[in-house]
Amino acid sequence: MKRLPALLLALLLSCLLSAPAAGAEEEELTIEEVVEYVDLDAEETQPAPVSGDAAWTFPVALEDMNPEYIRLSNKHYLLSESYIPDLEKVPTLAKGGIKWRGKDTPKEGHRLQPAAVQALCDMNAEIRALAEEMGFRDMYLKSAYRSYRTQRTMYRNRLAKNNGKDDGWVSMPGASDHQTGLGLDIVPSNWKDRGMNDKMMKEPECQWMAEHCQEYGFIIRYPADKNEITEINTEPWHLRYVGIPVATYIMENGLCLEEFTWQLQEAIQDFISRGGSPDLVKDFIQTPTDENYVIPAL
Ligand SMILES: [Zn+2]
Fold first, then answer.
1. Whole-number average pLDDT of the chain
2. Which domains does the chain have, with CATH numbers?
3. What is the 184 CA–ligand 1 centroid distance (Å)?
4. Model pTM score
5. How far, in Å, CA of 125 to CA of 196, rounded?
């Protein structure tokens, strides 16, 4: 069907060429009409560019994303036992960082990827600067990087306590956001020795974090309205570093990291199908490790 206008044009052109003397004025008009018709048709179908010059149309620019920082880990996207990120110790408050909750501190200390360490220090400095005005208490870092093996121990302990049932409070080994070295648990002082639950959301410090964490490159990893997608209970204390541009996009659009990942994967497929260079996007491709997993429709 789409070929018809072009064929018409070709026919008309050949008529013109074969009979140049006959009624020039009338035929000029006809060509204009046909050309207009062809142009309209082209606008409607938007043909894909043939070479690698497709535009990246996703709201976050490629250069504003670091593949390492947007790595998804959950029970369908498992990290391997050997995955150990680049880690740095989080300074304690006396060294410009944050108070540690001593009881849970691993023997290497609390560690995160360097960019997340810096972001956490900056954010805690701001929380402290606002303390008087906002009535904020001291914040405690309860947990940061956890190795695959630590997670395995925690998961086994949780199952043992819960009649062998996974209750969504402790991720299985390889599925924890903590293994990325970008996920952390931070709580106000009145919660540091309490069992954590989603009532913490009401605390002014947590409300402030939910509003401002993206300014430091963090997202709320397990928001209250995304339990069905994350398959993890609401955790107002668990922040995840993704970098400022991605965090801003996720928080402003009310997404969770899973939804962001799927949107991005769709954008990558679209980019390649329009002739974009696969080399430009290959580092951002993430596929489920669980091959039977069906990505929910967005
Ligand atoms: Zn956590």
1. 87
2. 68-254 (3.30.1380.10)
3. 5
4. 0.81
5. 24
